[in-house]
Amino acid sequence: MRDKFDLKELTNEIPLGEFLKYDEPLLVSRTNAVSGKLLLASEMSRFDTIGYDCAAVCINDMYAMGAKPLLFYDNISCARPKFEYIRDMEEGMENGCRQGNVTYAGSEIKELSDIFSYDQYDLVGFIAGVVEKKKKIGIAPVKAGDVIIGLPSNGLHNNGYVAARRKLYLTKTSMEIYYESLGATLGDLLLAPTRMYREAMEALLNSNIEIKSCVQVAHGGIDKAVHNLMHNSAGAVIKQREEDIPPLYDMLHKDGNISKEQMRNIFNMGIGMLILVAEKDTDRVVELLEAAGEEPVELGLAETGSDIVRYI
User: pLDDT below 50 — which residues of the chain?
Assistant: First the structure.
């Protein structure tokens, strides 16, 4: 297939010399799909950002573990591949890998006309990285009073597209309408590329500050992400100011008739990454994140004794 379209040759040779200095290197991996977002991209025939999405969500997962990403590989499935769509997706993934300092190791294109309909695509990314075992994020115990810091997202990222499409009755025409309240079309907002948090996370990882836990809000809504941040063993109290929630979510809440509880179960609510640190380290962490170009938000505190997450 790659020969048919004369696509760029990719390398799968990764030098591992720098990891010889690790005491106990761990190979870690993640797989992510962007199916819901890709369905909207297909309807609008816009594939210029979806490849970047796939790479970014995988790279963010690596940094959430404290790992250095090594290689990224993707699989594109469709009924009948179109050169320009495949090219746009691969260029997006190449751009994402470049920004994430990851080797773009391979891309598999599968023609499955008995499964997919015309102009329907599916894109799955696989990533592998290395982390020093004793430095892997998530092994420190959660204590009452630990501070939860959120990093803003660039839209929905990789959550809630099926619900958004159904609740807002999205079509190509409706996604091309400009909304004054949003300052953009729905299509532009919904297809906005996932933010990559490489610079912010590298700043923290190089600071020797203990990051107790870190979770990308990309595998369910913010409520699930907070539970994962607490290792499903501790609780939290969360207070997200209304002014910190982008207007797109207010439209989903009101026009989509979705309750606030359901919103938190489905969407990221404008937060793309959650970080848990000790209270004494909060000011320094915020300072580092701001220096890296982020606008961190202090969302709440950890609570012990139960795994209940309270929203106030």
Answer: none
Give the pLDDT confidence of 163-184 residue by residue, as tens digits.
Answer: 999 999 999 999 999 999 999 9
Q: What is the CATH number of domain 147-311?
A: 3.90.650.10
CATH topology match: 20-135 vs 147-311: no
Is-contact 187 277, C-beta < 8 A? no
Q: Residue 69 burial (CB < 10 Å; 0-12/13-18/19+)?
A: buried
Say what the pLDDT of residue 9 is. 61
Contacts of residue 40, defined as CB under 8 A and 6 or more positions apart, other chains included, come to: 161, 165, 170, 175, 187, 190, 191
> What letter does residue 50 receive in the DSSP assignment?
H
Tally of residues, the chain: 312
Phi, then psi, of 161 in degrees rounded to 5: -75, -35
Burial (CB < 10 A; 0-12, 13-18, 19+), residue 244, is: middle
Taking alpha carbons only, the member of 186, 180, 228, 199 closest to residue 43 is 186
Beta strand residue intervals within the chain, DSSP E: 25-33, 68-78, 103-111, 121-132, 147-152, 178-179, 184-185, 213-216, 235-238, 271-277, 297-303, 309-311
Q: Which is nearest to 250 in space by CA: 189, 175, 162, 188?
A: 189
Q: Which two tokens stand for residue 58?
A: 């995988």
Kindly give the residue spans of alpha helices, DSSP state H, lying in 102-179: 161-167, 172-175
Per-domain boundaries in the chain: 20-135, 147-311
Q: Which structure tokens are listed for 46?
A: 């816009």
Class of domain 20-135: alpha beta
